[in-house]
Amino acid sequence: MIPSQDDLWFLPLGGTGEIGMNMNLYGHDGQWLMVDCGVSFNEPLKPDDIHSAEVVCADPHFISEQKERLAGIVITHAHEDHVGALPFLWRRFKCPVYTTAFTAEVLRRKLIQVGLSDEVPVIVVKDNDTQKIGVFNVTWLALTHSVPEPFGMTIDTPAGRIFHTGDWKIDKKPIIGDGFSPERFKALAKENILAMVCDSTNALQDGHSISESDCYEALLKTISAEKNRVVVGCFSSNVARLVALGRVAQETGRYLALIGRSLTNMVGAAKATGHWPNDLPLIDAAHLGYLPREEVLAVVTGSQGEPRATLNRLAAGNCFDLTLEADDLVIFSAMMIPGNEDAIMRLVEQFKGQKIRTLQQQDTDLPIHVSGHPCRDELKQLYTLVQPQIAVPVHGEPKHLDANADVAKYSHIPRQLIGRNGDLYQLAPNIGIKRKQVKVGRIALSR
């Protein structure tokens, strides 16, 4: 299956019909461009399998079998479901990788762990940069999300121009980076965008997502009222949340420490690329045990109930750096990813059994966690700004894709294409979907 010079194809291998393990291909004139190469955690390899693997990714067999046609790999941002599989799979592709400085720093640290630090050509790009990657001209467009330097991009070919959003939201007051700029995307309407390939994660949610700045205010209010230790579980890649908690520590007379390798790695990458404020100190986690209870603020891994992460070790009483006591507070500042509900609730019950209090989003009216993805009003706004001819919902389960397509339809986008992993989206010269053109699946990775 090779695209001709008249063809413009989109082929998702992962992340369309599911949330996580994003792996997308664009095809034109005998070449392919990969956008993102991510993982998911604790997922079965087959839909009806009761057993799960700790780290899984989309099966790359289709493109690794024709790697000579793979012009390059573009990574939109540093979340694990977009970059996490690349260090393990790159030997199957052996092509250049294009991304921005922060994501490149995160990627380099991962490559060192798998012995590829000097082998992978990583080309660092900036906002509005254009790179010719084989037959594709790719231009980077800054967006707002919950990680530094989230980017969408236009992918330009003689057969048509695509806007690939990556993960995004409209945040006018982000903790890190500049606020969302509608003018840049309004300009796309004049560029005759053929298709907008768009994040669907929150397409079922009415209204507008809440700003990271509002989450900071909610965490400040919550933690200011506390007199004992406070532990916050959140995603390690949410650097904006970590910066917010650093500010909360300053304003409440607490010391901030990180427990968990992924957290310290992410903050290290943020410091190396200028995204960590110089006036936000961190203490070594080993010092937490010497502090009065009211001065402790620890950020930890394990908000999804992962068995080997810090929150589980705290609940079991075998965390080397910190021990919790009755009336301490554990805040879950992260969404509950579908499929992790049981593991998270078991963790909560363990804490409650020790009279350690827990606070989840459903327990409070304050936004102690906010999403990095667009709700329906934001989807409508971006579709209206960009005015593509075709809407291609991705990054979501089937119900999310359907909801995204509905928003596109009501936003007067002429065509909506709803498919699944392995479907071939024909964007030019004809418009349509050929179902199940490529065999797709999942493979397990070992960390």
UniProtKB/TrEMBL annotation:
Matching InterPro entries: Metallo-B-lactamas, RibonucZ/Hydroxyglut_hydro, RMMBL, RNase_J_2, RNase_J_b_CASP
Domain annotation Metallo-beta-lactamase: ranges: 20-219
Keyword hit for DNA-binding = no
The name under which this protein is listed is Beta-lactamase
CDD domains (UniProt xref): RNaseJ_MBL-fold (cd07714)
Q: Where is the signal peptide?
A: none
Organism of origin: Marinomonas ushuaiensis DSM 15871
- Spell out the molecular function terms from Gene Ontology: exonuclease activity; metal ion binding; RNA binding
**Keywords assigned:** Exonuclease, Hydrolase, Metal-binding, Nuclease, RNA-binding, Zinc
Q: Does the keyword Nuclease apply?
A: yes
